[in-house]
Each structure stands twice: as structure tokens, then as C-alpha cells.
């Protein structure tokens, strides 16, 4: 019996670990993790003293909780956990953890307490306590004790003595959702479920858990039938019975019957079965989780929740609006509109239900997607929303002229999508009342390609373009790489020639890619862009107002900003590393080239260039700008030789190779590819020929040498503008502002001096030392943080070589 108890306790540990990880805790030891298991706390004096002599039996032994969650830095206890091996031992777990809680309070600390009883996913119970200052009370959700371990943010909210013990579920971190989604995808794949059907299976299980209040029998004989029965009932209750056939599981799939038990348990760990008034929580979890279960498997990439919210905010959706989405997907825009109405007007659920039934219209022809959309609304307590499984282009009851706002993200190009995005925009406009607004996500190519010029002109003949807002390049990653833009169009009034349009570019939407998952980061720009639009403000580098030309891309209109010193220094150092790497790679060729120039007394020409009208402090104030050499327009006729030729090549500092060519230009100057790798400015400090697919920036008299690196850094920062219809031109480059702060130029000079030592060492080294220098440059490229200021780098290189 004792042996079985020990095995059960190990399994209880596994259950505890899974529940912690599901809420974003790191189950490793501090300082890398959050959890001290059993006697590990004794390595920390304050914790050891707190539980000294506080054994559970009162016999003088020390306390031995299952675990303690601590702050990694201060090691203050946040949560004390006691676990028992079987589900019927909850009372014993509560008794023991409250005993430890009294020890904590006596020592001046009041962490949360967790009592866990059970060792497997089917049979466990859990209670969480907090200290009020006078007694221990349950942590509750809707006045019912919670059955999950709070995450770190929830713990911080609950811990203060005066804080409420009532809480609501929190969305697990994106990394956790992605990890759990990967596991569910694997289980569904092993059960033979095709990619396109997996979102529907997950939706059916999630909806069934919600509808049944978690009462799904996990025996393989019953689990799939219970899922279908509960999911079907949810659709019937919502008066959407015709869609329930699209969101169900195959009861004859014996492999799925076995895998479903684990899938249900995963979703329960994510609190899907919390069934009181958590409609917003459940819906948000559903949307977020769905993105990680392969939304693109049915040919659609669904709009991230925060972008849908942003577009509803941009249109200022209110309770009197009728909102239309002609390609509604899982209903993200309908939900964003619903949520904004709730927040703005503080409506009751009954009031909201009436509004959304009459004023939210969603259309999608994909059966699974339409069913998922209805399920998503059911999870928010409203299944009566007007969601229709129809083709918006052929539906005979299409609501022409009914909506006041249209929000949409048309399907990306896909094998099963035969309609271009502009058709969806036109159809959405047909659904609007006069003076209605449409906010739509479209590929940026529609704004700039010449082949789409006629469509853009047709929009302006009957409507007004109000805003063009570029979205982050990685917005739909890791699922798709697509450059997208939000258009805001008002129906019915032709666009006036002198009207100013709002242009913006979002580079930070508050998220970033980390291990294929978009996770939170600081510095989001969405709030600033909304404020600037409403207050008619311009912010260099972010947004501005301008009359409209043929091209609508934000890159033509968003004003440039002056980079700060740290940004310039980082970019300038990267440029110097690239130049140094080029020298090391080609040191023998460059040495021979210089000897040839000296021996043959090859004349060097000043690069052609002209002045462009420019404000003080801009690129044009310090550089003449021209194009490369027409004599190198056709590179095919070049034959091998000693002279360096630079082109629009995307690497190796622009080196095209070494050829028999004597029409060489006098350095230093900046080359900027005008084709291929647009905007990848580079510094040329060797005599060379330059092909005419590059622009050349030649410093005017008195321009400090380090300003070449500053200018190249600025041009690189602006290269986002150079795509599709907007090309690199001298006039555009000339207007970019430069940071000419004296301290910055000195810091750039120091960085250049350090990397100049690499050039000298490489050019003067023998073959063995050259190989060592090459390896050093590779290391510097892999680890740019190793490029340091002062003499340290020079000393390291000298020691190395």
C-alpha cells in the first residue's frame, strides 16, 4: 500500500505541474522558474524559518507542503500548495494547507493557499484560499469556489489584504495556448482528422463543454455522443439548428473517442468549462485558441482580436449602428462591435441581445466557419445574432443599403477563393447606407500596383477615402507573411481633390513573434494612431495628413522622423560590421586591387550627382545624389579582372565581383539599390565601379565622414517605404532628416575606429591569420552585442591575431 501511495503522489505532482503550466507558471526552481517543491524551500532561510517546527502532525517536525510558488527575485511566497493523491482527500488537503497558512501569517506573510486532491485528469478537486486579515476565505468566481490555480497577474491582484476574493478567469499566455493547440493538433492528426475539419472538432468540443457545464462523460463509449448532443442542444437553443451539422464529431471514429478524453481535459485546464457569466472570457479564449488550431486550413486567416477592436474603434461603432461583415469568419468583427457597445453604453445582457439580433449581420459561405461564428456568439450568451451561411455575392436576401458600418477582412488568395479582395470591398459598399463607413483589411499591393489604378479611381468617384493605415508586417505570422493595410472609406460622397487623407503605419501593435507565437510587448502604437486620427495630428514616423495621389500606400505620405542617437549608433555599427566583413572576406583581392590601382596609376572619377532642394539637417543638405554608371548597365559583358564592381546585390556590401574595369569612382560614398534589395544602403570606402541600378550619395565639402554612416542608417530605416509602386528616388532620399548631434558623431567615429582595426589586421595578415580574422568576423556577425566601445575590441583582436 505504501508503494502505491508514493506512485499516486508522483502522479499528483504531474497533475499539479500541468495545472501550473496551463496558467503560465514555470514549474522549474528559481531563479529560472517559480516553484519550490517539498523540501527545496529549506535552501532559503526566510522560508525555512517560516515552516520550521510546523509539521502537519504537530510533532515538532518541519512543514512539508507539496510546493511553494515564489517571486523569483525576492523569494517571497506567493502561493503555498498541498496535494493529496486521490480526489476524495480534499478535506485533508485543505486542513494541511490551512495549517501552513497559519504558519505563514504568524511569520508576517499571507500567500494564497491551494488544496489539490487527485492524481489524474478525470478525478481531482481543488480549492484556493486568501487571507482577509482575519480569516481564510475561498477565492471565488461568481460566488463559486474556483477550480483552477490563479496565474501570476491574478495572484498579484488577490494578495493585498483588502482585495476582493472574487475573480474572473484570465486568458492563459499565448505560449501556453500555442503549446496546448499543438498537442490537440497532434491528437486530432493521430485520430485521422483532416486539417480542414480540425477547427470544427475543437469548436464542437468547446461548445459542448460550455453547454453541458462540464458534464461530458470521458469514457470512450460515451464521450463523442455526449459532445454531439451538447453541441446540438446549444445550436437548438440559439435557433440555429441548421448549422449544428457543420460542428460535430464523427461518433464512429474509435481513435477520436480515445483521444477526445485528453482533448477535453486540456480544454478544461484552460477553464473552458467555467459556466457562469464568463461569456466574454470564453469567447476570447475560443478566438485566441482557434488561431493556434490551424485557422488557415480552411483557406482563411482570421483577424487578430486587437485589430478587430481597433477597426471597430476607428469607426466608433455604437448601439444605433447596423454592422455588416460580408466574410465574417469566426465573427471577430461582430464580437468587437458587440464589446464596444457594451463598454460604451454599459448595457445589460438582455439589452445587448436585442441590439445584436437586429444590428449585427455576418455572412460566410464556408459551412464550418459559419457554424464556428455562431458558436463563438453562443459562448458570449448570444446565439441569435444574424449570422448567415451564404455567399455574399449571390445571396438573394443580401442586405443592400442596410448597414451603417462594414468591417471585414476578405479571404487571402487561396486555391478555393476565386474572388479578389476588391470585390469584397465593392460588395460591402453596396451593403452600406449613404454616409456609411467601411473599414477593410486588404493587401498593400492593391494600393500601389498600376494594374489596380482603375479600381482605386472607381472608389474615389463615388466615395471618400478617409484613412489608410499600414499594419505590422508580421501581423498574420506565423500563419502567413502578408503586407496588409486598413482602408477607411465613407460611402456616397466623391473624393475631393484637395481633401487631406490620414495615413499611418503601425510597426508595434503591442505584440511580437517569439518561437512562432505572438506575445505581448511594450510600446504599442494603436492608441496614438487613434488619437492622432481623431485630433487631426501628425507624428513623424507614425502618421500624417496629406492630399491623395494615384498611389495610396502609406510609405508615400507618412512623414519621416529623425532617429535618436541609440538607433543611429546601432544601425551605423551594423553597417560598419558589414563593411568590415566584406574587407575580411576579400582581403587578398582588395590588396591586389589596390596594388593594381597604384601601379597603373588608374584615375578615379568623382561620382556624378546633383543638389536637390532640401531643408537644413536633411540628407540633401549634406550629399549630392545621382545614379551609378551607364557603362555598367549590362553586366554580362564583364570579364574577370582586378577591379571591384558594386551593384544592387543584397549582400556582401553590394560586391558584384572583381572585373576588368578601369572607369572607377573615388570613394567614400553611399550606394543605395534602387531595384532588388530596395533601400539597403551601404558604405563604399574602396574605389569601385557602380552599376546604374544604384543611387550614389556623395558627401559635399565639409561633410564629416561618419555622416555617411548616419545617412545610410536613416535610409535603411526608411526602406519599408520602397515596395510595389514606390521606388527609391533622389528627391525622396534628400528629404530624410539626419541626426547630426556632435556626441553621436563622436560615438559613431569610435565604433568605426574599432572596426577599422579589423580591416588593417585582415589586409596585413598572412594566410593563417586571415582565416582567424574571418572567423572573428563571423562571430561578430552572429553576436553583434560583442562589438564594444573603447579599446577592448582592439586589444582582443590583437591578442587573437
Question: How would you portray this structure in words?
Answer:
With 801 residues, the protein is of the alpha/beta class. It folds into five domains: 2-167, no CATH class; 169-294; 299-436, Vaccinia Virus protein VP39 (Rossmann fold, 3-Layer(aba) Sandwich), CATH 3.40.50.150; 444-559, Rossmann fold, CATH 3.40.50.150; 565-579 and 597-736, Alpha-Beta Complex (Adenine-n6-DNA-methyltransferase TaqI, Chain A, domain 2). 39% of the residues lie in helices and 17% in strands. It contains 25 helices and 28 strands. A nine-stranded mixed sheet has the order 11-10-9-12-13-15-14-16-19, with helices on both faces. Strand 12 (403-408), helix 14 (421-430) and strand 13 form a beta-alpha-beta unit. It is globular and about 95 Å long. It starts with a helix and ends with a helix. 45% of the residues are buried. Mean pLDDT is 84; it is low at 1-7, 275-280, 294-300 and 784-801.
Quickly describe the structure.
The protein has 801 residues and is α/β, with parallel strands linked by helices. 39% of the residues lie in helices and 17% in strands.
Q: Secondary-structure map with pairings?
A:
Elements: H1 2-22, E1 35-37, H2 45-51, E2 67-70, E3 77-84, H3 90-106, E4 112-118, E5 124-131, E6 136-138, E7 140-141, E8 144-145, H4 152-158, H5 174-190, H6 198-212, H7 223-237, H8 254-269, H9 279-291, H10 305-314, E9 323-325, H11 332-345, H12 349-359, E10 360-363, H13 367-378, E11 386-388, E12 403-408, H14 421-430, E13 432-443, H15 445-448, H16 453-462, E14 463-470, E15 484-491, E16 500-505, E17 511-514, E18 517-520, H17 526-535, E19 543-547, H18 565-585, H19 587-600, E20 604-605, H20 619-622, E21 623-627, E22 640-646, E23 655-659, E24 664-665, E25 669-673, E26 682-684, E27 689-690, E28 694-699, H21 706-717, H22 730-734, H23 742-764, H24 767-782, H25 792-800
Parallel strand pairs: 3-4, 9-10, 9-12, 10-11, 12-13, 14-16, 20-24, 22-27
Antiparallel strand pairs: 1-2, 2-3, 4-5, 5-6, 7-8, 13-15, 14-15, 16-19, 17-18, 21-28, 22-23, 25-26, 25-28
Amino acid at each position: 500500500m505504501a508503494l502505491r501511495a508514493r506512485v499516486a503522489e508522483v502522479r499528483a505532482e504531474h497533475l499539479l505541474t500541468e495545472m501550473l503550466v496551463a496558467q503560465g507558471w514555470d514549474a522549474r526552481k528559481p531563479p529560472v522558474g517559480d516553484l519550490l517543491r517539498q523540501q527545496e524551500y529549506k535552501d532559503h532561510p526566510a522560508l525555512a524559518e517560516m515552516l520550521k517546527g510546523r509539521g502537519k502532525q504537530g510533532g515538532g517536525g518541519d512543514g512539508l507542503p507539496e510546493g511553494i510558488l515564489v517571486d523569483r527575485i525576492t523569494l517571497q511566497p506567493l502561493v503555498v500548495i498541498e496535494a493529496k493523491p486521490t480526489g476524495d482527500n480534499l478535506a485533508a488537503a485543505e486542513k494541511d494547507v490551512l495549517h501552513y497558512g497559519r504558519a505563514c501569517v504568524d511569520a508576517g506573510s499571507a500567500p494564497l493557499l491551494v488544496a489539490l486532491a487527485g492524481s489524474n485528469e478525470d478525478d481531482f478537486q481543488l480549492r484556493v484560499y486568501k487571507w482577509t486579515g482575519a480569516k481564510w476565505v475561498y477565492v471565488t468566481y461568481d460566488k463559486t469556489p474556483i477550480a483552477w490555480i490563479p496565474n501570476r497577474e491574478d495572484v498579484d491582484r488577490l494578495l493585498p489584504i483588502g482585495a476582493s476574493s472574487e475573480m474572473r478567469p484570465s486568458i492563459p499566455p499565448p505560449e501556453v495556448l500555442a503549446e496546448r493547440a499543438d498537442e490537440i493538433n497532434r491528437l486530432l492528426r493521430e485520430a485521422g482528422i483532416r486539417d480542414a475539419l480540425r477547427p470544427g472538432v475543437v469548436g464542437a468540443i468547446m461548445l459542448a463543454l460550455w453547454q453541458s457545464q462540464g458534464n461530458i462523460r470521458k469514457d470512450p463509449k460515451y464521450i463523442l455522443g455526449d459532445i454531439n448532443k451538447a453541441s446540438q442542444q446549444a445550436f437548438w437553443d440559439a435557433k440555429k439548428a441548421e448549422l449544428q451539422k457543420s460542428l460535430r464529431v464523427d461518433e464512429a471514429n474509435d481513435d477520436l473517442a480515445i483521444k477526445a478524453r485528453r482533448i477535453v481535459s486540456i480544454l478544461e485546464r484552460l477553464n473552458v468549462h467555467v459556466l457562469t457569466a464568463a461569456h466574454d472570457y470564453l469567447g476570447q479564449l475560443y478566438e485566441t485558441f482557434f488561431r493556434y488550431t490551424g485557422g488557415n486550413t480552411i483557406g482563411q486567416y482570421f483577424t487578430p482580436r486587437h485589430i478587430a477592436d481597433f477597426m471597430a474603434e476607428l469607426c466608433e461603432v455604437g448601439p444605433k449602428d447596423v454592422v455588416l461583415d460580408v466574410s465574417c469568419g469566426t465573427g471577430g468583427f461582430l464580437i468587437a462591435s458587440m464589446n464596444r457597445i457594451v463598454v460604451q453604453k454599459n448595457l445589460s445582457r438582455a439589452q445587448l441581445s436585442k441590439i445584436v439580433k437586429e444590428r449585427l449581420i455576418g455572412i460566410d459561405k464556408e459551412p464550418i466557419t459559419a457554424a464556428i461564428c455562431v458558436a463563438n456568439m453562443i459562448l458570449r450568451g448570444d446565439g441569435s445574432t444574424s449570422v448567415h451561411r451564404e455567399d455574399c455575392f449571390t445571396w438573394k436576401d443580401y442586405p443592400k443599403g442596410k448597414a451603417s458600418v462594414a468591417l471585414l477582412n476578405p479571404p487571402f488568395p487561396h486555391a478555393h477563393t476565386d474572388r479578389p479582395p476588391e470585390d469584397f470591398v465593392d460588395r460591402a459598399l453596396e451593403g452600406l447606407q449613404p454616409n456609411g463607413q467601411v473599414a477593410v483589411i486588404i493587401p498593400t499591393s492593391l494600393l500601389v500596383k498600376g494594374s489596380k489604378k482603375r479600381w482605386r479611381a472607381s472608389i474615389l468617384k463615388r466615395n471618400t477615402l478617409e484613412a489608410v493605415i499600414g499594419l505590422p508586417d508580421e501581423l498574420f505570422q506565423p500563419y502567413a507573411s502578408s503586407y496588409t493595410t486598413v482602408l477607411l472609406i465613407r460611402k456616397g460622397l466623391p473624393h475631393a481633390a484637395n481633401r487631406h487623407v490620414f495615413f499611418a503605419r503601425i510597426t508595434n501593435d503591442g505584440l511580437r513573434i517569439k518561437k512562432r507565437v505572438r506575445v505581448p510587448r511594450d510600446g504599442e502604437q494603436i492608441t496614438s494612431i487613434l488619437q492622432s486620427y481623431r485630433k487631426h495630428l501628425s507624428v513623424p514616423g507614425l502618421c500624417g495628413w496629406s492630399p491623395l495621389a494615384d498611389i495610396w500606400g502609406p510609405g508615400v505620405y507618412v512623414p519621416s522622423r529623425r532617429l535618436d542617437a541609440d538607433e543611429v549608433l546601432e544601425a551605423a555599427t551594423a553597417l560598419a560590421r558589414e563593411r568590415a566583413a566584406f574587407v575580411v572576406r576579400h582581403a587578398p583581392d582588395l590588396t591586389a586591387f589596390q596594388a593594381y590601382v597604384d601601379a597603373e596609376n588608374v584615375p578615379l572619377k568623382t561620382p556624378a550627382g546633383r543638389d536637390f532642394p532640401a531643408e537644413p539637417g536633411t540628407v540633401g543638405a549634406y550629399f549630392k545624389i545621382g545614379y551609378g554608371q551607364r557603362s555598367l548597365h549590362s553586366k554580362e559583358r564583364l570579364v574577370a579582372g582586378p577591379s571591384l564592381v558594386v551593384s544592387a546585390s543584397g549582400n556582401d556590401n553590394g560586391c558584384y565581383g572583381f572585373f576588368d574595369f578601369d572607369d572607377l569612382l573615388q570613394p567614400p560614398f553611399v550606394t543605395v539599390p534602387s531595384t532588388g534589395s530596395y533601400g539597403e544602403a551601404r558604405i563604399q570606402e574602396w574605389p569601385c565601379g557602380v552599376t546604374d541600378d544604384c543611387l550614389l550619395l556623395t558627401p559635399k565639402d565639409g561633410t564629416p565622414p561618419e555622416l555617411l554612416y548616419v545617412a545610410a542608417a536613416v535610409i535603411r530605416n526608411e526602406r519599408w517605404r520602397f515596395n510595389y509602386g514606390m521606388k527609391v528616388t533622389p528627391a525622396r532620399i534628400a528629404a530624410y532628416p539626419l541626426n547630426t548631434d556632435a556626441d553621436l558623431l563622436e560615438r559613431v567615429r569610435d565604433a568605426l575606429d574599432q572596426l577599422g582595426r579589423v580591416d588593417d589586421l585582415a589586409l596585413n595578415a598572412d594566410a593563417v591569420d586571415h582565416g582567424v580574422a574571418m572567423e572573428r568576423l563571423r562571430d561578430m556577425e552572429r553576436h553583434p552585442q560583442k562589438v564594444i566601445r573603447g579599446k577592448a575590441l582592439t586589444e582582443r583582436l590583437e591578442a587573437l591575431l
